[in-house]
Amino acid sequence: MVMNERQRTIAQFYARLASIPSLEQLREGERLLLLDDFHAIGPLLDEFMPVTVLTTRAGVKPTDSDFPRAPTDWELLVRHHTWARTYIADLLDGQAVTLRFHPTWRLNSGKLVENWNVEKLGDGLLFGLLSLIKLTPFPFRRCPVCQTIFVPVRKQKYCSPNCTYKGVETARKDERKVYMKEYQARKRKEAQKLKRTRKRQLRTQRKTK
Predict the structure, then answer these.
(1) Tens of pLDDT, residues 151-180
(2) Taking the model in full, what pTM does it have?
(3) Does residue 114 share a domain with residue 42?
(4) CA-CA distance, 55 to 206, in Å (whole number)?
(5) 145 lies in the same domain as 170
(6) In 159, 198, 205, 209, which residue has its Cα 20 to 30 A from 24's Cα atom?
(7) Based on the structure, what is the number of domains in the chain?
(8) What is the DSSP string of 101-138?
């Protein structure tokens, strides 16, 4: 399935988050730029938030008392960073990922209705990330050169032209090493064969004398 422009924008932001080991180690300017980008994709993430998220375990909409203090923008960003590291980086590293929450299903006139418990989910915006992770092929890739997580275009293997150059040069060097190793082994084998041939010739010459 090909991602649309909206999905690609969100995926690129999550890829950037997943590539950051620790938000606390960022400089102040880097934090501000990251927050600006987070604000920019906020409206896009809102579109993924289903109405059913706003139901509690008992099926009653939560009141203001259920949320005594709204999280700050930075706290929300930290939450998204945790999700990105858990659901993208871990998957790319070959680890099994288990969701910490589960939906509740019920039938309504023969139609399956899915409800998420907001107490477990914590933030309906997570649906933006989950909807991307379910895409086929998996929309994230880790650069084999610098280990940065990025959103590939088609069969793109490296995250940047610089890494592409380094990756190609490394591959060439590796191929050259393999070629030289095989070449030297072949030469040694030919030399040993020639040596054995000369010995046989010498023995033959001695017998004929």
Answers:
(1) 999 889 999 999 999 999 988 888 888 888
(2) 0.69
(3) yes
(4) 101
(5) no
(6) 159
(7) 2
(8) --EEEEEETTEEEEEE-HHHH--TTHHHHHHHHTSSS-
